[in-house]
Specification:
244 residues; Phosphorylase Kinase, domain 1; 3 domains; seven-stranded antiparallel beta sheet
Length: 244
Amino acid sequence: MTCPDPMLLHALLDDELDAANVAAVEAHLRTCPDCAAEFEQLKDLHQIMADPALRQPAPASLRDRIDAALPAAPHTANPWPARLGWGAGGAIAAGLALTLGIPQQSATSGLEQQMVASHVRSLLADHLVDIPTSDRHVVKPWFNGKIDFSPPTPDLKAAGFPLVGGRLDYIGGRVVPAIVYRRNLHTINVFAWPAGKAPAGETMATDGYTLVHWRQGDLDFWAVSDVAAGDLDQFRSAFVAATR
């Protein structure tokens, strides 16, 4: 298999992969000296960062700022858990988001988790594309007869997102097309299916990946990648402009 996205090595180290993806990455590490060496460097860095000597206690003023941002509650001996009805760790996290302006991660549904999992598997299993070509006139007709609709497959090389090819995937209980693009060293998977009731124009993040949703004509599109959210928004704009 080809070398996986470097982010997957971080995910393996942080126990963020499911069992199937753990097995796939570990199998690759046993056969690829370069990735194995990089993973060992990551483990060394992880151990260094875990050194208790590097930890610095938060100043008392930070607790005061978090406490002031939380809603009032009846007096208790320890008001922090009582105010939100959960552990102090959760109260601290919420307080930090309120006080420091950290954006909270959007909740994702099972469908969005399936798309992220499909994106990750495409990078791991050496099955990124079934039809490897940058020619949109080859990719688009390749889907004919394999699915019951015809997705657009624009080449966005001029916008910085060259077409890589296409494949079939399985999401939400149906076979769907995956149109694959690159952004520098990053992969963008675009999934499409007939438009449903979900609102268009959503952007969310989960597990280090960004998902962008839009509706065009009678199709819903989702782009999934680990590129910056701004790059994925730029991709969406380029895709819409090229297929309008």
